[in-house]
Amino acid sequence: MARAPRVAFFGSPAFALPVLEAIRERFEVVLVVAQPDKPVGRGLRLTPPPVAARAAELGLPLAQPRKLRGNAAFEATLRDSGADVAVTCAYGKILPGTLLAVPRFGFLNTHTSLLPRYRGAAPIQWALIEGETVTGTTIMQTDEGMDTGPVLLQAPLPIDPAWTSVELSGALSAQAAGLIVQALEGLEDLSPAPQDHAQATHAPLLVKEDGFVRWTDPAAAVVNRYRGVAAWPQTTAFLAGTRLKLGGLTVAQGQGQPGEVMGVDGDGLVVAAGQGAVRIQTVQPEARKAQPAALWAQTAGAVPGTRFDLWEPSTS
C-alpha cells in the first residue's frame, strides 16, 4: 500500500485515549466509533464516553451506534468512511462478522494481556488477582470469537509489585499506543500467528463480590485481589455485618485465625489471613469518608482478637 492506511477507531473509556492520540498523530482517522452517551452522577446527566468527547473536540467524524448486529446504516457509515483498517481498544461491544469484513485489512484489536492468556473483558484486573509478575499487550486480528483471533504483535510488560489496576492500566495504555502504531506502519508485512487455544485462560468482567476479602486465602492472595479490584469494585470487608471499604493493603508478619485483628498501631491494622497477615492503612465505613485504620479501630472498638466476618464465594 503506497500511502498510509486510513483508520477507523473504535473505543470508549479514558484508557483508549492514548491509543487514539498515537494513531491520529501518524495516520488519518476517518471515523471514531464509541458507545452511546450514558446517564452519569446523581443528576443522571447524559454524558459522552471519553473517546466520544475527545473526537468531538478534535472535529473527527463520530458514530455512537446503539447496536452493531443487523445495523445496515452503520455498516454503510463505516464503508463510506474509506477506512482501510479499523482498530478497537476497549470499545465494549461484540463485532459481527459482516462488520469485520468491511475494511480491507479488517479489524485490529489492542488486548491488554499476552494472549491466549486472559481472554475477556478484565485482563488487567485478573492478571493482578492471579499474582502475575509479567503481562503485556497483544495486537490481534479480530475474528468473531472472544479474543480468539491470530496474533500480529506482542510485547511483555513487567508488573511493578506496588502497582494496582490503576497504575497497570496506565502502563498498558501507553504500551498499546506504541504497539498499534508499529502494527499500522507495517500493516502489509504482518504475519498472523494462530493462538494455542489449549493454553487459553479467561478474564470475565468483574462483579462486586470479586472485591470481597477472602480472609482464608494466603495474605499475598488477599493483597493481590486488592490490587486487582482497586479501580472497581474496590476491596470490601464485613465486621458484624457492617460493610467496610479497605485501602492500602500490604503483606505483614504474623499468624492467627483468618480475619482476626492481631494489632493496631500508627501504621494501620494487622489482620490474620489463611497464611500470614495483611496490614490495612485505611478503612471507609458506608456513607463516610476513608480514615486511618487505627482511628477507625479506636472508634469501632476493633481491638486485638476482634474478627472480621468470613466470606466465601458460593459454590452453587
What does this structure look like?
With 316 residues, the protein is an alpha+beta fold. The chain has two domains: 7-199, 3-Layer(aba) Sandwich (Rossmann fold); 209-300, Formyl transferase, C-terminal domain (Methionyl-tRNA Fmet Formyltransferase, Chain A, domain 2). It has eight helices and 17 strands. A seven-stranded mixed sheet has the order 5-2-1-6-7-8-9, sandwiched between helices. A four-stranded antiparallel sheet has the order 10-11-16-17. A four-stranded antiparallel sheet has the order 12-15-14-13. A hairpin with a 4-residue loop joins strand 3 and strand 4 (45-47). It is elongated and about 70 Å long. The termini are far apart.
Summarize the entry for a quick read.
This protein has 316 residues and is of the alpha+beta class. Helix content is 25%, strand content 25%. It has a seven-stranded mixed sheet, with helices on both faces. Strands 10-11-16-17 form a four-stranded antiparallel sheet. A four-stranded antiparallel sheet has the order 12-15-14-13.
